[in-house]
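job 3f2a | input accepted
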Amino acid sequence: MFRNLRVRKQPKKHAPEKERLPRDWLGQNADVPTSLRQINGLPDAAKKRIYRALVPPALLGRFGINPVTWKGPDGDGHVLLSARAGTGVASIALRRRVGSGRDVFYLELEDTSMSGINLNFLLIRDPDGPCFHTDRDQEGNPTLFGTVHRNLDAEVQAMQAGLAPGQVCQGLRASQQVLQHLEAFLVSNGHSAYFLEPLTYTSAWLFERRGFAYVRGHRLMDEIDREFQPGGRLHRALDGSSPFRQPDQWQSVRGRAWSIHDGILTAIGESWDGLRMIWQVGRHQGVETLQRCLN
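job 3f2a | predicted structure (295 res):
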């Protein structure tokens, strides 16, 4: 399903060309998509009214932050909205303590050239749970999720604690709630789908369970599952040569994800790159590429 989903090559224009919304446009064109660029051209108060819907009130209330005013125990500054005029990018960051520099929640959206929306980034972390320095190598350089540098000691600790590649801290188990709010936000602005690129094998699996389908990468996911089975090339590559390539790791999603993070896909001439997924509002696609993974 959706293995060869066609994507329109030329943008289909739905909305006015102007960055700012005409005075009467919202009232007359309820089914026409509104771009983030158009929203970003509104006054700050209007932008807050619209983007406020992206953050679940329960998530804000958990940290003593008022869902309407965004004021928290330290006053203003707990919720940071970035939606600069003239751009098609918007992000919202939530911080438990003002000025802490560590986000509990971060979401970034961006307009596409096809009049659609990309979910560029979604982070939800538990500030009270254990955290590991997988985001910095031993010299303090950013690892960029292990794509440029790696902190192997921290990664082993994170893996043993049950985290997936790319995770610094445990999550809050709030992704489903956040995605529901995102869907409602997009529907209210006339969008029927959005796109994302899964950072890790674990991410792809989670988004499958949430109802996403693949624009690109379905065949790779099927091949990974097949080759991790006993007798497959990836199964044979689990040779104990590193902590991330233990023989039993094929039996779990996180185990597979850590071995892929460690570069095991070279055994089948592939790399974790170029996957793209789509969510169509109101439709669970029923995609399942991990049919033989035990847990």
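job 3f2a | Confidence is low (pLDDT under 50) at residues 1-17.
job 3f2a | closed
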